[in-house]
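Batch manifest, entry 17 of 40.
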Amino acid sequence: MNIKMIIVFFCFCLGNEIFGQYKSDVTKPDVSQPMIKDIEIPRVRYAENITPRELKMHLDVLASPEFEGRETGTHGNDKAAAYISKYLYNLGIATIPGADEYKQSVAFTFSKWLNNEIGINKTIYKHLWDYLVFPSDNPGENIDTDDIVFLGYGIDDEKYSDYKKAKVKGKVIMINKGEPMRNDSISFITGTSQLSAWSSDMGKKLKIAKEKGVKAVLIIDNDIKKTLEVNRRKVLGSFLELGDLTHKKYDKPTHIYISSTMATEIIGGKQKKILKARKKMAKGKASSVELTAKVIIQLQKEVKVLESNNVIGYVEGKDKKDEYVFVSAHFDHLGKRGDDIYFGADDNGSGSSMLLELAQSFQQAVMEGNRPSRSIVFCWFTGEEKGLLGSQYYTEYPLFPLKNTVVNVNVDMIGRTDENYNDIKAYTYVIGSDRLSTDLHKVNEEMNQKYTHLLLDYKYNDENDPNQFYYRSDHYNFASKGIPAIFFFTGVHKDYHRPTDTPDKILFDKMASVGKLIFHTIYELANRKDRIIVDKEIK
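Output type: structure tokens
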């Protein structure tokens, strides 16, 4: 992520309402009104349990060399889960109802190429350089053919079909990205300058190819490097899929993105026929060309099922115990790359440590006879760095009813400052608070004014923010189910997703101040008379 490319959107304010769909400016506390600091008030006393010293104690363990970066499916990740579980046990936090441990098991499938080679007319080409093929999307397969069909764009639409006269069953086809366009940039399919789904969704082309009996699809890609960057995790070995997919059935044929150099070699001496076909396509007329290059594709892959765990404990509520405030942070990170450990101190050792402190504070409330009205669930998700997979699994197989889950409070990267706040520590970015519920937004602002006086920055809450952080942490899997979510975050820095994200750079005093706001917001959500109202649509 490039923090320098942030686009700031300023909205016109009318009273307390923002002209625009979501809040995207900054709220400064009214410092003329003193914060409530009286520790004789129970909630203030419990919030004071969140200390820099204890946060450091947890983070020094979670981001230690022993845990090797906590990558999902590794021993380091298991050790982190065990540390969190042991601490919950020592606090006396309850396990999942009906279980004797704090774990929700999650299966992942990991696949990688053992052998990956393509030869054309005796020339061997290099994976990642000349072509790309994703192990998670393709079966292992050996293909030896000299019967290839250039099939234009690989489209089968009522207004334009490359398949109409072509014989492709059991064959390898080679296609272009996109769709046929007139010289004035009007699509032959939509009749406008707007492109159809055939351009935006390669899966649509691949599924049609499967239905037509195509053996494999070669997709001509004029920018292999860009495609690699977009799909880096899929091809460089760290990509996981949710569930046990050892017997996965593929709804698409083998498909490979090939460079224009490879395409030229396959075309060989039939360039004139290809040019003629392309001229026809430019007039909205489909045309295919039979090619005779010798193509050998060898794809053998290894598939493994990895086990990991979400770690979950909860504080049972009192009169509204069947309603749940769900508090989350992901504890996984990127693991090791060669000899380098990606420690993940800020991402997300900071949020994981904060949840341990929050659990301790609410457990103290219980011990002193101040059990919250609603139940509070504390969850440390695995698999976030693999695509929010741990939270996806939980929301598909919830241990507490989603219909009774009032809100998700998510904490991810709260231990540092970004370049916008190098000289200011008393701040946090707030994302998502008003996306589904006006109540949730108001509660957090009120708690900040009463108890913490942080600067609340909504920059990344803007629907048009290019970073799209709203969709990039675990809270989104709750929001997509219609559950209001608020995400606390203090920004990206130069050590993000690097081995240099280490505990010595964490600002523990700052962490503690943000943690106190999070505590008071959770406390209010768990104890207010009415559950917060969902008054906006899912986006």
